[in-house]
Amino acid sequence: MQKRNLEIAVLSDLHLGTYGCRAQEAVNYLRSIQPKILILNGDIIDCWQFSKHYFPPNHMQVIKEIFSMLSRGTQVVYITGNHDEVLRRWSPLNMGNFSLTDKLLLEINGKKTWIFHGDVFDATTKGSAKLLAKLGGKGYDLLILLNNFINWWLVLAGREKMSFSKRVKNSVKKAVKWISNFEQTAAELAIEKNYDYVICGHIHQPQNKIIQNKAGKVTYLNSGDWIENLTALEFDKNEWKIYQYNAKEYAAQNFRPNTQEIPELNVISNEVTMFINSLNFPVNNNPRKKTG
Fold first, then answer.
1. Given a cut of 70, is residue 174 above it in pLDDT?
2. C-beta atoms surrounding 131 within 10 Å
3. Which of 20, 38, 71, 128 is 20 to 30 A from 8, alpha carbon to alpha carbon?
4. Could you report the per-residue pLDDT of 46-100, keeping only the tens digit for each?
5. Are residues 101 and 79 in contact, defined by beta-carbon separation less than 8 angstroms?
6. What is the 3-state secondary structure (H, E, C) of the chain?
């Protein structure tokens, strides 16, 4: 498969280190693109559920693919999320083509694009509610494992796969309302700041739509996730699009995961205060040059 050249690719919510992570699909996708800027919009490594006993080779391969992009000149921006909040203690950080930050402001063809993970709007990731969120994350991981097992049998029987959690989200009114409120809050704040686009992750719900109120309008985008939806955002030819992973496109590719033994890892996570930082990267001419 020939690599697709892109201006910008945005991925979020890979949750590397969890059973639900679709790491091989993420590897396939990363190998198929060559973006000028790769934005990792939070929850890439799941430090909440991280265990040194579970980090398979294809999870490590995702990280290696990102480093490979760095070596080829791609500007990689890692925006922290709630599941990888431990990284916020080092934000902001710039090393060559790599930047670590908590939010990003791009100016693309005169349009302002505001990018952040989105957990700042979620009360369940703060204080005592955070413990319940972590426990819920483990339950979600088990649900994904059960879902994968059932889907394996469904494929053998020649039937379509199904997603338990997506059905629950779509059927529970409170979940639908929460997603709608999240999108509206992000959009209204972006309108207040006179931004043209706002891009989030966090809620695992890919989206591309215009939201407006009395003060104006903004294009709201969400990159989705790599557990259920397998989606990313791509900017090319002056347009944002949602990329939907299709396994058939990669069926002929022999993308074998790295099977080398991975050394044991220890990550100590603690709660840190969110630090807001802005970066500006012009896309048209030289994406490495920082402005403003």
1. no
2. 9
3. 20
4. 866 666 677 889 999 999 999 999 999 999 999 998 878 788 888 789 998 999 9
5. yes
6. CCCEEEEEEEECCCCECCCCCCHHHHHHHHHHEEEEEEEEECCCECCCCCECCECCHHHHHHHHHHHHHHHCCCEEEEECCCCCHHHHHHCCEEECCEEEECCEEEEECCEEEEECCCHHHCHHHCCCHHHHHHHHHHHHHHHHHHHHHHHHHHHHCCCCCCCHHHHHHHHCHHHHHHHHHHHHHHHHHHHHCCCCEEEECCCCCCEEEEEEECCEEEEEEECCCCCCCCEEEEEECCEEEEEECCHHHHCCCCCCCCCCCCCCCCCCCCCCCCCCCCCCCCCCCCCCCCCC
Q: Which of 97, 106, 100, 88 is nearest to 240 (CA)?
A: 106
pTM metric for this prediction? 0.73
Q: Burial code of 225-264, b = ≥16 C-beta within 10 A, e = fewer?
A: bbbbbbbbbbbbeeebebbebeeeebeeeeeeeeeeeeee
Q: Are strands 197-200 and 216-222 parallel, antiparallel or unpaired?
A: parallel
d(CA 180, CA 178): 5
Q: How far apart are CA 239 and CA 101, in angstroms?
A: 24
What is the identity of the amino acid at 17?
A: G
The two three-digit tokens of residue 235, written as one number: 């900017």
